[in-house]
What we know:
heterodimer, A: 2 domains, B: mainly alpha, 434 Repressor (Amino-terminal Domain)
Amino acid sequence: MECKTINPAARRYMHRFSVTMLLYALFIVLAVWVFVHFRPTGPLAYALAVLPAIPCIGMLAVFGLYLVEEKDEFQRFIGVQAMLWGIGGTLTVTTAWGFLENFVHVPHLQLILILPIFWLFFGISLSVLLARYK
Amino acid sequence: MKNRLRVLRAERKWSQADLAERLEVSRQSVNAIETGKYDPSLPLAFKLARLFGSTIEAIFSDEN
Lengths: 134, 64
């Protein structure tokens, strides 16, 4: 995953991830635009509301594909570790925030922020791990 | 796990990047194995041994 010596699997991963990110942004804009202009109801409203979540599954799926395609076992090890730190960090922060909401009434955390929080933890972990094994 | 990779590499005047290329892994991977921060899988250990014309036991040691 090092930029200077990026291998084909990492390159494919970055390309696929960019596509899912683009779809995520497009679907959010589309959903907002349709809701603002047409105020859909019923099944269409539900389908549109969950539309941006589909690329989120895609983001995780392309990471899974990367792990399958990456031939360098050490890079896979780094990727899996970053993923675990991402999951652990997200679970810890959101659980702690949930208790804070219940006991000291901090502002409500929107559930749609969970994915960005996960990628934030993932990104930080990946950077730390890459620096550690530089 | 301790290993003799640095010595074996130096004997052949290979850089970490040279060894990485021969093993088809990243330079980071070679560095992590060489410094004992990462223990390679059995297939990679065999690949290393074959590359140096040696055995896994002659390259890696589990003694502290």
